[in-house]
Amino acid sequence: MDNSLAAGRRLAVQVVLAQVAAAIIVGLLFLIRGAASALGAFGGGGVVAIGTALLALRVFRPSLARGAVTMRRFALGMLLKWLVVLGGLFLILVRLRLPLVPVLVGAGAAMAVNWLVLRFDI
Description:
Helix content: over 70%
Structural class: mainly alpha
Order of helices and strands: HHHH
Strand content: under 5%
Shape: elongated
Mean pLDDT: 90
Number of domains: 1
Oligomer: single chain
């Protein structure tokens, strides 16, 4: 029997793994333009995957909770995710000075994969 908590956890794992795969693929594609571009593309997708993983860890705690508690977990998890994503993109672009376009393409690809996995339930 399939319960919603276990199904949600499986879906969260699928989304994170698909985002990591997208980051690797985009990073390999940008390897044509050089190591800095490849690293930027992988880093952009990687921070999105890390943010999604943190969101999932926050939402899918071991215990079941009431609706209000679950909503609060989700809201705080989304806040954490975007803090990680924006902070990671800042570090990649400003501190490491990696190229803008590959970083944004990597992050965009990871976000698009998120949508595709949720839309088509791979």
